[in-house]
């Protein structure tokens, strides 16, 4: 190390004590200095806007007027009576349930297969690739793949004798289709997180289970799943919270080419798209803030419930 | 799928009492229960390969579509290889062909300045990456390496911000940057992610906690101050995690859509994701320009895929690290 010079070595004894104490005493200031830029950004772009959004939710804030008057709980009362708000919540919940169901089961299967079959980074890399692509690109890609007339998927379906489907053009199929697209994008990423968790499980446990005559299926339920619990809880929180906030995909892939996002007939009007529309298309920023405040509380509850029910912060291994 | 699997090798053998089994089964078989070639293993491989194909096929289909002329597209030809391979779509998306040529090839005539959007995306993503990684590393150092009162409490405030849904703070941030007169500038597009993201602070703090303090202690004894320890000892030691963090920050910034959509709708600062979504929204209902759209989509995915080909292992490792914290 360059710092260690002959002179420094000579003064070693003396410096060791005084320098150490000086540093200890001044650490509060040093910390403040190190935290300055991040703290500034945090206060300005996280803390302050969060408080401001909360205040806005009690006003009729308008983005064009750039001001709003205090209206008390008016926004929240409006929200309770807003059919479209409840509709969008329902659509979002449907989407989340289908998405998370498919994604988690598939990812778990993929993670176990990777764990048992191969250490190949190429396999893991290929599976995680869709996660790296912008969601906008993913949306456009599947809009094309699922095009009712020219899309590849319908062509393949017709080849195996199933008739063409409307997919994103059908009010009944649009939500499951979106959930499937999102699964395609996230399943590899989720599998990789779970795979990392699988690596933590001591191999001796499987040997012991095998010695006691347990088969693959039994080992999965009795060893893998219980010991994967903390990682599974984290993955579920990440994916459920993320799934609730779907926006880019719906904004790009729904309503057909040149159509209004959220279509057909509001069948894919997820809560993010509705909030966005209220704030930036209808200039109801106050109302949009109230809806996002409700969403915030809802997501915090979901996080808490998942962590609680899976006891996610404690491991059985410790 | 695993339900159909026959039990693993050792279990398939003796099935009587526990003690008998333990003595009957040769131990070397036990070490890796599923290593031998057997139908279940082949089936699992088959499923894995099918999943990889399902992952990759859409990417191929983008390229295949982009290399097709619009006229042959509408004949419904679904052959695996493009019927008449052509560069024309890439050329017109990159603005290398005249408007007339582009219209002839099936373009809507709408302006789509791919290169400009690409440049803007690079500017914004680089700005965000540099600022975010620098400042978050400093913050992580303060949280992991310095002793000060209230450290845990402040850290938990940062962590709690992970729970804030972006849409909740997008509206006030829009108002703030509007008041500052910064909308439709690169500064506005980068600002909310430039200084800090709670995830990045958390991610880097975990790495700082993981490295040994021996070097730091030695430097301290030699009288080095904290800025010096940070720059000359920790940053070099942390170069691998820091570059991983930079990749993650870059990819996330590159993929960002909602914020640039509201804060940077002006053509001069429009980023690629916003440009692509508007390109799609500007299409005529009757005959959308699929080949042009796919050429643009393809080019939009290229920078990330290139990054991935170079840094794939590091990205994979960093995701796994997030899973473990």
Automatic annotation (TrEMBL), chain A:
Domain ABC transmembrane type-1 residue range list: 89-306
Membrane disposition: Multi-pass membrane protein
Major localization class: membrane
Bilayer-spanning residue ranges: 28-48, 93-114, 126-145, 227-247, 285-307
InterPro entries in alphabetical order: ABC_transporter_permease, MetI-like, MetI-like_sf
Matches recorded under CDD domains: TM_PBP2
Protein family: Belongs to the binding-protein-dependent transport system permease family.
Keywords, alphabetical: Cell membrane, Membrane, Transmembrane, Transmembrane helix, Transport
Cell location: Cell membrane
Record PANTHER family: ABC TRANSPORTER PERMEASE PROTEIN, DIACETYLCHITOBIOSE UPTAKE SYSTEM PERMEASE PROTEIN NGCF
Protein name as catalogued: Sugar ABC transporter permease
One GO CC annotation: plasma membrane
GO BP term, pick one: transmembrane transport
Superkingdom of origin organism: Bacteria
From TrEMBL, chain B:
Membrane spanning stretches: 43-63, 122-144, 153-174, 186-208, 229-253, 290-310
Chain residue ranges for the region called Disordered: 1-24
Domain ABC transmembrane type-1: 118-311
Compartment(s) of residence: Cell membrane
Alphabetical keyword list: Cell membrane, Membrane, Transmembrane, Transmembrane helix, Transport
Keyword Cell membrane: yes
GO terms for biological process, alphabetical: transmembrane transport
Membrane topology type: Multi-pass membrane protein
InterPro entries found in the cross-reference section: MetI-like, MetI-like_sf
GO cellular component: plasma membrane
CDD domains: TM_PBP2 (cd06261)
PANTHER family: ABC TRANSPORTER PERMEASE PROTEIN MG189-RELATED (PTHR43744:SF12), ABC TRANSPORTER PERMEASE PROTEIN MG189-RELATED-RELATED (PTHR43744)
Similarity-based family: Belongs to the binding-protein-dependent transport system permease family.
The protein's name: Carbohydrate ABC transporter permease
Species of the source: Phytoactinopolyspora halotolerans
């Amino acid at each position: 190390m360059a710092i260690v010079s002959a002179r420094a070595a000579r003064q070693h004894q003396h410096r060791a004590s005084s320098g150490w104490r000086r540093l200890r005493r001044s650490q509060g200031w040093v910390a403040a200095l190190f935290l300055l830029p991040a703290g500034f950004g945090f206060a300005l772009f996280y803390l302050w806007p969060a408080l401001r959004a909360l205040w806005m939710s009690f006003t009729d804030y308008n983005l064009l007027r750039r001001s709003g008057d205090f209206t008390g709980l008016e926004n929240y009362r409006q929200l309770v009576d807003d059919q479209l708000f409840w509709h969008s919540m329902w659509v979002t919940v449907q989407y989340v349930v289908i998405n998370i169901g498919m994604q988690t089961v598939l990812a778990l299967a993929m993670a176990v297969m990777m764990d048992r079959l191969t250490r190949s980074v190429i396999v893991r890399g290929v599976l995680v690739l869709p996660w790296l692509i912008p969601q906008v690109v993913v949306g456009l890609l599947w809009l094309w793949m699922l095009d009712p007339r020219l899309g590849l998927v319908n062509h393949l379906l017709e080849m195996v004798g199933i008739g063409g489907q409307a997919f994103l053009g059908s009010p009944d199929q649009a939500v499951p289709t979106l959930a499937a697209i999102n699964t395609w994008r996230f399943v590899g990423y989720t599998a990789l997180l779970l795979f990392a968790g699988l690596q933590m499980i001591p191999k001796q446990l499987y040997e012991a289970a095998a010695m006691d005559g347990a088969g693959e299926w039994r080992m999965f339920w009795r060893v893998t799943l219980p010991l994967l619990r903390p990682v599974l809880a984290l993955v579920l929180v990440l994916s459920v919270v993320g799934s609730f906030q779907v926006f880019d995909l719906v904004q790009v892939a729904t309503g057909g080419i040149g159509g209004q996002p959220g279509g057909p007939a509001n069948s894919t009007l997820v809560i993010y798209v509705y909030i966005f529309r209220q704030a930036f298309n209808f200039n109801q920023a106050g109302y949009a803030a109230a809806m996002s405040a409700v969403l915030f509380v809802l997501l915090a509850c979901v996080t808490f419930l998942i962590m609680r029910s899976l006891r996610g912060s404690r491991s059985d291994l410790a | 799928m695993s339900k159909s699997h026959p039990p693993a090798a050792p279990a398939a053998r003796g099935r009587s009492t526990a003690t008998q089994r333990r003595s009957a089964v040769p131990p070397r078989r036990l070490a890796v229960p599923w290593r031998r070639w057997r139908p279940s293993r082949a089936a699992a491989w088959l499923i894995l390969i099918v999943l990889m194909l399902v992952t990759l096929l859409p990417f191929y289909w983008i390229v295949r579509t982009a290399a097709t002329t619009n006229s042959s597209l509408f004949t419904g030809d679904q052959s695996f290889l493009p019927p008449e391979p052509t560069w024309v779509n890439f050329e017109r998306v990159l603005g290398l062909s005249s408007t007339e040529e582009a219209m002839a090839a099936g373009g809507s005539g709408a302006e789509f300045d791919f290169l400009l959007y690409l440049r803007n995306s690079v500017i914004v993503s680089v700005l965000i990456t540099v600022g975010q990684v620098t400042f978050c590393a400093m913050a992580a150092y303060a949280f992991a390496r310095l002793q000060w009162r209230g450290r845990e409490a402040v850290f938990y405030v940062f962590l709690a911000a992970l729970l804030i849904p972006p849409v909740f703070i997008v509206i006030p941030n829009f108002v703030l940057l509007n008041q500052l007169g910064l909308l439709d500038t690169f500064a506005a597009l980068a600002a909310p992610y430039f200084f800090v993201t709670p995830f990045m602070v958390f991610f880097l703090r975990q790495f700082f906690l993981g490295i040994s303090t021996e070097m730091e202690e030695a430097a301290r004894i030699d009288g080095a101050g904290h800025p010096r320890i940070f720059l000359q000892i920790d940053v070099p030691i942390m170069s691998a995690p820091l570059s991983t963090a930079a990749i993650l920050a870059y990819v996330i910034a590159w993929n960002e859509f909602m914020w640039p959509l509201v804060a940077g709708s002006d053509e001069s600062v429009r980023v690629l994701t916003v440009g692509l979504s508007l390109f799609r929204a500007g299409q005529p209902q009757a005959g959308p320009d699929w080949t042009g759209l796919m050429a643009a989509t393809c080019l939009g995915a290229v920078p990330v895929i290139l990054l991935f080909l170079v840094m794939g292992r590091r990205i994979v490792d960093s995701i796994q690290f997030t899973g473990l914290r």
